[in-house]
Design a protein that fits this description.
two-stranded antiparallel sheet, 4% strand, mainly alpha
Length: 157
């Protein structure tokens, strides 16, 4: 039994390594495709969405700790068919492939682009804002709007 268990573990580890390499290759293709798009994306909302989706995928990758310990108070309990209470099985993350490590580079690029795009907008539209004459004529616009409103009130009565 010990030898067959060792062979099973070896096969499982080999399959996991194969799957990890395959996933890494897919993530490399994903990175090669997404990076130019991220670096040239002009909309902050799209960059925020990309960061949100990648972070959500990374959170899904964090495995929950399963406890077989009967004395663990924090583990959720479920009632079995026979009335006995046993620890509830928690869903695992995305497995042992650790996709979060593979998506980290894409997330860093998206966050960096988001930061520099936000900085650019702040500088252009806030820090170096130069008001136009119509922007400075706001009190006149307000008085004009109140004047036309009062004319409408008098004409309708």
């Amino acid at each position: 039994m010990g030898r067959s268990r060792h062979l099973y573990d070896y096969e499982t580890d080999r399959d996991t390594i194969h799957h990890s390499q395959y996933l890494e290759n897919l993530c490399d293709y994903l990175y090669d495709d997404l990076r130019p798009r991220i670096l040239h994306e002009p909309r902050i909302s799209v960059l925020c969405d990309v960061c949100t989706v990648i972070q959500a995928l990374m959170v899904l990758d964090v495995p929950n700790v399963e406890s077989d310990d009967e004395g663990d108070v924090s583990a959720p309990k479920s009632e079995g068919d026979d009335g006995s209470i046993s620890p509830k099985k928690r869903p695992k993350g995305l497995g042992r492939l650790h996709i979060s490590r593979l998506l980290q580079m894409v997330l860093q690029d998206a966050q960096t682009r988001l930061f520099f795009k936000a900085q650019s907008i702040i500088q252009a539209e806030i820090r170096y804002y130069v008001p136009k004459p119509e922007d400075l004529a706001y009190p006149d616009k307000l008085a004009g709007a109140l004047g036309t409103r009062s004319l409408h009130v008098f004409s309708s009565s």
